[in-house]
UniProtKB/TrEMBL annotation:
<feature type="region of interest" description="Disordered">
    <location>
        <begin position="238"/>
        <end position="260"/>
    </location>
</feature>
<keyword id="KW-0539">Nucleus</keyword>
<feature type="domain" description="Myb-like">
    <location>
        <begin position="62"/>
        <end position="112"/>
    </location>
</feature>
<dbReference type="InterPro" id="IPR001005">
    <property type="entry name" value="SANT/Myb"/>
</dbReference>
<keyword id="KW-0677">Repeat</keyword>
<dbReference type="Pfam" id="PF00249">
    <property type="entry name" value="Myb_DNA-binding"/>
</dbReference>
<dbReference type="GO" id="GO:1901141">
    <property type="term" value="P:regulation of lignin biosynthetic process"/>
</dbReference>
<dbReference type="GO" id="GO:0005634">
    <property type="term" value="C:nucleus"/>
</dbReference>
<protein>
    <submittedName>
        <fullName>MYB94</fullName>
    </submittedName>
</protein>
<feature type="domain" description="HTH myb-type">
    <location>
        <begin position="62"/>
        <end position="116"/>
    </location>
</feature>
<feature type="region of interest" description="Disordered">
    <location>
        <begin position="165"/>
        <end position="206"/>
    </location>
</feature>
<feature type="compositionally biased region" description="Low complexity">
    <location>
        <begin position="194"/>
        <end position="204"/>
    </location>
</feature>
<dbReference type="InterPro" id="IPR009057">
    <property type="entry name" value="Homeodomain-like_sf"/>
</dbReference>
<dbReference type="GO" id="GO:0003700">
    <property type="term" value="F:DNA-binding transcription factor activity"/>
</dbReference>
<feature type="domain" description="Myb-like">
    <location>
        <begin position="9"/>
        <end position="61"/>
    </location>
</feature>
<dbReference type="InterPro" id="IPR015495">
    <property type="entry name" value="Myb_TF_plants"/>
</dbReference>
<feature type="region of interest" description="Disordered">
    <location>
        <begin position="116"/>
        <end position="146"/>
    </location>
</feature>
Length: 328
DNA sequence: AACCTCCGCAACCGCTTATTT
DNA sequence: TAAATAAGCGGTTGCGGAGGT
């Protein structure tokens, strides 16, 4: 089938986003929620293609994103998941709350891969650099490969469990009650590679304050604060040139997220009144230590076979492995 | 201080998959 | 059922900062 260009090549702006563009996009998403990206450029007047808008939102503007400073546990998790899943960054990122696939991918390419290569002569310290046993051949569609993985989930779980076992004295622990909220209005923005992953990631996060759970409100007040930040003129691109946000660092306080732009801060917070939408499956983060994700995964791993064969109806952690549906 | 090289990351590109008509 | 379209994903690139000489 003929595929039209995703967007007009003429008149489409490229390159770094400006604060103004960010504001326009955030404001639009505040009103309409993420999705229908095709309509975003026309409705907002942004001279960007829909893809660019989506990417900007998912990788940068979306609340709940944490940037930089990967913890050791995150590193290990990425390494092991990469060994298990291959370069399926969206799937891997879905196990890391607050991390985008782009972030994970970049971190892998710039840090972890090199570290692994340095760590062992063959460039394969713990096997992560090898093509994973379950990695689909390029010609396979993702669906096909998912099914393969599903049929082989026992092996996969065992591999992951073994991979994670050396992580230390972490022990399986009871999981918080599952959160029914799963997709929200902003469905499938990030890491939607499998419902499993999304669900697990939500399970992995500390339970936020109920009012904040998956809720994102950008009030007019907040927008003005954001503008204040942008107007500061001292903003840098990761401490550098003006013109682009220095990184919309998000830090959650449990009931709100702060999106920092240089010197300014826009608070993305639940608020009474005003549009509200659930932005996606990854809830805002609590002060981040990545304790829950590992615990959840471990719990899932150690819980192991007891849940096979069981019809999965709830949003429990087991939903994280819809493969269970297919297990014999 | 100037230049060069390396590194990190945001964004783009092209392909695949999912959904709609 | 097929075509058209939208969305998602992963690989790659280019820019700007940091550090070294």
């Amino acid at each position: 089938m003929a595929r039209p260009p995703c967007c007009d090549k003429e008149g489409v702006k490229k390159g770094p986003w400006t604060p103004e563009e960010d504001l326009v996009l955030v404001s639009y998403i505040q009103d309409h929620g993420p999705g229908n990206w095709r309509a975003v450029p026309t409705r907002t007047g942004l001279m960007r293609c829909s893809k660019s808008c989506r990417l900007r939102w998912t990788n940068y503007l979306r609340p709940g994103i944490r940037r930089g400073n990967f913890t050791e546990q995150e590193e290990k998790l990425i390494v092991h998941l990469q060994a298990l899943l291959g370069n399926r960054w969206a799937a891997i990122a879905s196990y890391l709350p607050e991390r985008t696939d782009n972030d994970v991918k970049n971190y892998w390419n710039t840090h972890l891969k090199r570290k692994l290569q340095a760590g062992s002569g063959d460039g394969d310290g713990d096997g992560a650099a090898k093509p994973p046993a379950h990695r689909p051949p390029p010609s396979n569609s993702k669906g096909q490969w998912e099914r393969r993985l599903q049929t082989d989930i026992n092996l996969a779980r065992r591999a992951l469990r073994e991979a994670l076992t050396p992580l230390g004295d972490l022990k399986p622990q009871p999981q918080p009650q599952p959160q029914p909220q799963r997709d929200g209005a902003g469905v499938g923005i990030v890491g939607g590679d499998s419902p499993a992953a999304s669900s697990l990631s939500s399970q992995c996060s500390p339970p936020p304050a109920p009012a904040a759970l998956g809720t994102y409100v950008l009030t007019a007040d907040n927008v003005s604060r954001m503008l204040d930040g942008w107007a500061g003129l001292n903003w840098k691109r990761r401490g550098g040139a003006p013109g682009t946000p220095g990184g919309a660092e998000t830090a959650s306080t449990g009931s709100s997220s702060e999106v920092s732009y240089g010197g300014g801060t826009a608070v993305v917070a639940p608020a009474a009144g005003g549009p509200v939408f659930e932005y996606e499956t990854k809830p805002p983060a609590a002060p981040f230590q990545l304790m829950m994700p590992l615990s959840a995964i471990e719990s899932w791993l150690f819980d192991d076979d007891t849940h096979f064969h069981r019809p999965v109806q709830s949003a429990s952690l087991l939903d994280a492995a819809p493969m269970d549906y297919y297990l014999l």
